[in-house]
């Protein structure tokens, strides 16, 4: 499964809600988890694999893989935290991003079962990062313009070297 890379137009488009969660979402969920493991990531959203649907997978070490379909961030803490983020769509490049420390999220799993979570730390950050993908936002969009330009310049140099 190909993970779309920085510059692909779908990465900046908003994903559509999933209308009906049927058995095919168990396969889509398994594919997302497999692709995020293959890429050595901890989260992967539908738009990153060309599926313009509101679905993403998260797998933090020591936890089970989780699937979020039609997620809603229903609350965020006022406390913010800075943490270095990367992205499978911008491989090998990282930058510090400020995000809320704690969130409440509601979503459905791949079996169509609704759930609510209140989480903090890394899991909250990964959920927010993947939720951004559903909104057409990359972590680089949350950086200052000079920092964003440096990441894009490094990425361009990196990909140009790989092609030669």
How would you characterize the overall build of this protein?
- The mean pLDDT is 95.
- The chain has 3 helices and 7 strands; from the N terminus they run αβββββββαα.
- It has a single domain (9-163), classed as Peptide Deformylase, CATH 3.90.45.
- The chain is globular.
- With 164 residues, the protein is of the alpha+beta class.
- The protein has a 5-stranded antiparallel sheet. Strands 4-5 form a two-stranded antiparallel sheet.
Write the layout of secondary structure elements.
Layout (H helix, E strand, L loop, with lengths): L23 H15 L4 E3 L9 E4 L7 E11 L3 E8 L2 E11 L1 E7 L5 E7 H14 L10 H19 L1
Antiparallel strand pairs: 1-2, 2-3, 3-6, 4-5, 6-7
Largest sheet: 5 strands, antiparallel
Number of domains: 1
CATH structural architecture: Alpha-Beta Complex
CATH class: Alpha Beta
Distance between the termini: 24 Å
Q: Return the string of H and E elements.
A: HEEEEEEEHH
Radius of gyration: 15 Å
- Unreliable spans are none
Strand tally is: 7
Spatial order of the strands forming the largest sheet: 1-2-3-6-7
The overall pLDDT average reads 95
**Number of DSSP helical runs:** 3
Give the CATH superfamily: Peptide deformylase
**Strand-residue fraction?**
25-35%
